[in-house]
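[step 3/7] fold_predict: job queued, chain A
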Amino acid sequence: MVVRPILQFTLNPTGFCGKPFTMPRIITEEREDIPMQKEQNTQPENKMGVMPVDRLLLSMSLPMMISMLVQALYNIVDSIFVSRVNEYALRAVSLAFPIQSLMIAVGVGTAVGINSFLSKTLGERDFGKANKIAVNGIFIEFVSFLAFALIGIFVSRPFFASQTSIQEVRDYGTAYLTICCTASIGIFMQTVFERLLQSTGKTIYAMITQGAGAIVNLILDPILIFGLLGFPAMGVSGAAAATVAGQIVAASLAVLFNLKFNKELHISLKGFRPDMRLIGNIYKVGIPSIVMQAIGSVMTYGMNLILEAYGVAQTVFGIYFKLQSFVFMPVFGLNNGLVPIIAYNFGAGKRERVVKAMKSSILYGVCIMLAGLAVMQLFPGQLIAMFDADAASAELLVIGIPALRIISLSFAFAGYCIVVGSVFQALGNGVYSMCVSIARQLCVLLPVAWLFSLSGNVNLIWWAFPIAELVSVGMSTFFLVRIYRRIIRHIGEDTLGVSE
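[step 4/7] structure written:
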């Protein structure tokens, strides 16, 4: 007889805001029909279970940090090129951000669920189940693409009409967003296949795919926007076409690298049927991550509505989001390396490695954000000046310089909160991250921004960001203590305790 640990979820009625949380604990199930050794467990231990943690974290994260820095760079360059069309074109691209962010939220959030579930399964040495998780993950990412293609066709124009009364901005934005959504197959396939590489520790290939996509985008941007080398001048539509072309190139490379180098997974669609049980397990972590990131879309949309009365302030807000991605993306790359490490060692019962990875990541994340804070405080004018949108430049500087300095104060706390949120997701408690994100962006940031907007002083609105981040620090710390007591300190024991 074998006593097998299985994951069970119980409801804790004392959760945040009176809502129950699903808390995992390990119970045992006696089974007569389970052999002592799975036939699949003949492969050697993955490096995530044996390599020194700091070296492992850097080897897993640095390629992703570099590739995401390149992605952030081409997002900024993309907007710089668009700003040379005119300020309305730049504003249109900025107003498209909530839908683009929602698309990324669904793709990346689903991939976080795939990555966490898959890494934990690999840590348990169940390679047959890991293959099924990978294939089902690819399937649901494709379904997500179909959904956003429909959004691009039917929602783009009314979406822009709700944010601005300027017809030129509406026309630019509708053309841009329609292309980005209907041709979004690249971003969804790129996301899932890169996460399959990350889950087995092959982050260098994910870096190559993202870098290649960024380079293609950078090359095509001026060609398609301004009509170089015999191509017609497409303006904002050219920026969208360059973006999706880069994504498709990256996705193609990610598929190729998985088939050629990812020997721990054997991906085959032959005889495939969706497994709703596995898909449900993916979304147990994925849905909170999707909701958490999608909340950012809601917040951005709400801020655009609040800032509409201040004209060019909408453009400033869009510029800030492009610039802040250059700071946040390395931290997200760090998290991409952290999640599979924690999930794998959680599955393998190695508590010390989980704690070490968490502490090191918090330190690195905070240092990155402090560096970003310093740059925003010292060089706000130079950063805004890169987006030289014709006659609006002077007004952009007047509104943009204090905006960058005030909003960036939140960076001092954001690195800690982002890393801790990824720890929650890796341990299968993405609902904690979701609650923190809801409170920060919907319960604090938007209401405070709206209240400050009643003063008529746009500079007061920006203070909503550091105020909201302080709330995020408090909640993140509360949940971290909670999850440590309930889960982390019990990793490797026969059962996971639930006492406080």
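[step 5/7] annotate
DSSP finds 18 helices and two strands in the chain.
The longest helix spans residues 313-348.
exit 0
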